[in-house]
């Protein structure tokens, strides 16, 4: 689910929503078997925790900061603590620069076919009960059924990741990456993107229709549960438990979605491979190249979604393979 939130945060396109979200932490509701599965997965994951790490190789210094792309009042304290890192960085990398983001938004406005299907509608390819569930969930987020029927499945997947209680524009106005990018620009630092902004957009638009449908079906469940999943996600983020957050999102989706669990696993594997692992493998070379000539007083700063840090193919493990020493720092 967190990968869906990431894409949604890039697009900043959506209907209206209202009120503030509440929601409850779902971890206490886990059964013993689920709790043990979650703990085993975390124990097997390298660098499972920590939102701020420093990688050093001789004088080369890289600060890696795990971000969240959705705004939260508690982020202000973290921005204050991390600002000195950004203000002294020789270069600050983000998943997308603000200029790239504006270009991407313009592409979606100028080319509606990126979001709208012209050859088929969703009611034609879904059974009636599933379509009714989807239409109701979308309507609670401000989309009437006639619009929902024509949206590409991957876009609806992104939209359903946002609970109806949340105002999209307000939520995306100040995620940690946006706030730290503002710090970098104000300090006159060099700001660069880790990749071309078309990379992720092309992945979803070019994904086979059946894979898009699998992602969509995995995202259809009670909107109240979406609010609880959001609350859980924020708690895990501020506890710096990004590996637990990823695995729990998979577990809760399998428990609640209108989709076969094996197909949910397959959808998660596809997204994990492309949205995390393959991108990390490309990014790490860019980061290591930029680190040449960096120093503790003029480090490279990398601000990316926290899910990119952990795992055997996470940025931390990939840098360790290249001879960097890793140290967790206060977040």
Layout of helices and strands, plus pairs?
Layout: H1 2-11, H2 32-43, E1 52-57, E2 60-67, H3 75-88, E3 91-94, H4 98-110, H5 122-125, H6 128-139, H7 145-148, H8 153-160, H9 168-171, H10 176-186, E4 191-193, H11 198-206, H12 209-217, H13 223-238, H14 242-256, H15 261-291, E5 300-305, H16 315-321, E6 325-328
Parallel strand pairs: 2-5, 3-4, 3-5
Antiparallel strand pairs: 1-2, 1-6
InterPro entries: TraB/PrgY/GumN_fam (IPR002816), YbaP-like (IPR047111)
Pfam families: TraB_PrgY_gumN
Signal peptide: 1-19
Could you explain how this protein is built, in words?
This protein is an alpha/beta fold and 331 residues long. The chain has one domain (2-11, 49-328). Helices cover 54% and strands 9% of the residues. The protein contains 16 helices and six strands. The chain has helices at residues 2-11, 32-43, 75-88, 98-110, 122-125, 128-139, 145-148, 153-160, 168-171, 176-186, 198-206, 209-217, 223-238, 242-256, 261-291, 315-321, and strands at residues 52-57, 60-67, 91-94, 191-193, 300-305, 325-328. It has a six-stranded mixed beta sheet, with helices on both faces. Strand 1 and strand 2 form a beta hairpin. Helix 1 crosses helix 8, helix 2 runs antiparallel to helix 14 (242-256) and helix 3 packs parallel to helix 10. It is globular and about 60 Å long.
